[in-house]
Amino acid sequence: MNIKKTVAIAAAAGALAAISVPAMALENEFHGMYKFMGYQSNFFNGASATLGKDAGSGFMAEQRARLQYTAKANADLKLVTHFELDTRFGGKNETYLGAGNDSGNLDADQLTLETKNIYLDVNCPLTGANVKVGMQPIADSYQSLFILADMTGALASKSFGPATAAVGWFRLNDDTATGVAAVGKQTTDLIILDGKYALNKDMKVGASYYNVQDDSAVTGYELMHMIGVNADLNVGPANIKPFAAFQFGDINSKDTMSGMLLGATSKTKVGPGAVNLSAVYMSGDETNGAAGGEKSFRAAVKGGGTTYFNAANMWLLVRSGQAINSSHSILGNDLTAKGLGLMGVFGGYEATMGKLFYNANIGYAQTDKGTDKGIGTELNAQVGYKVYDNLTASGAVAYAILGDKFDASKADDPYAVNLQLSYTF
Fold first, then answer.
1. Pairing mode, if any, of strands 238-250 and 256-270?
2. Which of 220, 264, 273, 267 is nearest to 245 (CA)?
3. Mind giving me the DSSP string for 246-285?
4. CB 284 within 8 A of CB 375
């Protein structure tokens, strides 16, 4: 080997080593999940819940995969990315989950990759605060009855001994329908101020202020203020989480708004499992959420498509926390019942026996306002088995006895049988 070739190889090796140092110092983390869901139902069509008389029964199947990659430079700096792929078996060449096509159709080959999260997670060396900037998941402190969604913005949080505080700004909408000149003008912004204080190891209290200012007519109001309090209490074998919130603001230049939220959840150890209880009250208005409906508790966005109440453990009365691509609740995604409000009580028992797990639940829901208030009573049960450490299989059945709110439509009582296969890594 001549000297020139030796020098060239050494130079190339040196250059490769130089550019490889940052890459080798970077810690790469990969996580994700896959979930299959099959439904036999007389009201769920795979995109929405539609009650009817003599509707018959059909079977549909769908799947969801999530892929998460985190580029971790060190303990104080990382970039988090999260992607999602949704598919209905058989596909649908119209509008499915906001996409033009669905990869479940014949011969697949469609684009379905969705961006869920991309944000920078930084521990500030000057203030000691944690700062997240970008598209990130945000949940309220009220069992997600106000908002639970992926949003673009910034959130800073910091601990002060037994206290923690968080402040955030998020842009929910930037309406450019009237042209580029409207960017940054016709917007919807959410401001979050949230604090918690641990009185001791068994008692934590919290308070928050949320502000929604809408210049784009997306939320159905121009300005909303929401003030709330919450707690996390351990009392003997029970964990109890009560909460309350009050809303006020302006619907437009003439009409004001107000709304009330009350509720609590609890989990109590009993035998091999736990008893779950929850209750919620959201004020409503007879005007069914129209311009004069000033007394309805409202979600951050009109229609409440980004709200949940997973503590209810329902499949039909309330949007299920286990659903993946769409809601099969008879209320749809709007827990406010189109401004009429919601009153509900729910209870159940869950337990694990080795690799076997099971739960059974019952719940009742009605609207706060309206001539016919009864939404219905639901009974459901689920049994599952942990096939491997990362793989579970389960089956569930749910049946709802409709209330007087549906008497006029003479709709059949809805039911759903769910088969589920879930893998996480």
1. antiparallel
2. 264
3. EEEEESSSS-EEEEEEEEEEEEEEETTEEEEEEEEEE---
4. no
Q: How far is CA 378 from CA 159, 327, 339, 400, in A?
A: 42, 16, 22, 4
Facing residues of 49 across strands?
Answer: 44
One-character DSSP codes across 5-67: HHHHHHHHHHHHHHHHHHHHHSEEEEEEEEEEEEEEESSB-SS-B---SS---EEEEEEEEEE
Question: Residue 307 belongs to what domain range?
Answer: 3-424
Q: Which two tokens stand for residue 323?
A: 């659903």
Contact 60, 44 (CB under 8 A): yes
**CATH number of the domain residue 95 falls in:** 2.40.160.100
Which two three-digit tokens encode residue 409?
């439509």
SS3 assignment, position 3: helix
Each residue's pLDDT expressed in tens, for the chain with a length of 425 residues: 454 444 444 444 444 344 444 545 789 999 999 999 999 999 876 666 788 888 789 999 999 999 999 999 999 999 999 999 988 888 765 544 444 456 787 777 777 889 999 999 999 999 999 999 999 999 999 999 999 999 999 999 999 999 999 999 999 988 766 666 667 888 999 999 999 999 999 999 999 999 999 988 777 788 999 999 999 999 999 999 999 999 999 988 888 899 999 999 999 999 999 999 999 999 999 875 454 457 999 999 877 778 999 999 999 999 888 988 767 788 888 899 988 999 999 999 999 999 999 999 999 999 999 889 999 999 999 999 999 999 999 999 999 999 999 998 899 999 999 999 999 99
Q: Is 311 helix (H, G, I), strand (E, B) or coil?
A: helix
Which residue type sits at 256?
T
Query: Token pair 């018959």 is at which residue?
Result: 56
pTM: 0.88
- List C-alpha distances in Å: 7 to 14, 15, 353, 357: 10, 12, 67, 65
The pair of structure tokens assigned to 214 is 């809408």
Q: Could you tell me if 342 and 260 are in contact, meaning their C-beta atoms sit under 8 angstroms apart?
A: no
Reported as type and span, the H/E element at residue 393 is strand 391-402
Considering its fold, how many domains does the chain have in total?
A: 1
Q: What is the DSSP letter of 192?
A: E
**Site of tokens 């409906």:** 293
